[in-house]
Design goal:
Blueprint lengths: L1 H17 L4 H23 L5 H32 L4 H11 L7 H12 L1 H33 L7
Helix pairs in contact: 1-2, 1-3, 2-3, 2-6, 3-6, 4-5, 5-6
Length: 157
């Protein structure tokens, strides 16, 4: 049941996470997803979870949200790479089409340098994936742990 609730929480968060909300609102959405998973588990099983188990349920919801987002980004990068264009030219086109004041000249040079060197690009993508995993699972776990504070601190039945 815990895994099913984690998948349900992630499935409910996923479309909202893709909308252009501010970052702070998206982070609160992740916390709310973990809270939803843990509180729904408590209601359905009529048991009270302790801090560790609530955090774990929230973490599971964050894990499934991470996997959904990782899948979407993998599909996007695959489509972009098989479309015949390289990422560097697509990024240059996007920078020309966007707001010119969004990036300074130094930032634009750094971005071109990262996209032109495959080792730097791989490092940046790997760090992004690690940070996304830690932040999504951690924040969702915190949301699950909040259930113990708002619904009582009883031990697991």
């Amino acid at each position: 049941m815990a895994v099913r609730l984690g998948i349900l929480a992630a499935a409910l968060q996923f479309p909202l996470f893709l909308l252009p909300f501010p970052v702070v609102l998206k982070l609160l959405l992740v916390v709310a997803g973990g809270y939803f998973a843990a509180s729904t588990y408590q209601r359905r099983t009529e048991s009270h979870l302790d801090f560790k188990h609530s955090f774990r349920l929230g973490w599971i919801a964050g894990l499934f949200l991470f996997l959904l987002l990782l899948g979407i980004y993998a599909i996007t990068f695959s489509v972009l790479s098989f479309s015949g264009n390289n990422l560097e030219s697509l990024m240059a086109e996007a920078m020309k089409a966007g707001d010119p004041s969004a990036f300074s000249a130094e930032q634009a040079t750094q971005l071109r340098e990262i996209f032109s060197d495959s080792t730097k690009l791989f490092t940046v993508l790997l760090l992004t994936i690690v940070v996304a995993f830690v932040s999504l699972t951690g924040l969702s776990g915190i949301g699950g742990a909040l259930v113990t504070f708002f619904r009582g601190r009883s031990h697991r039945a």
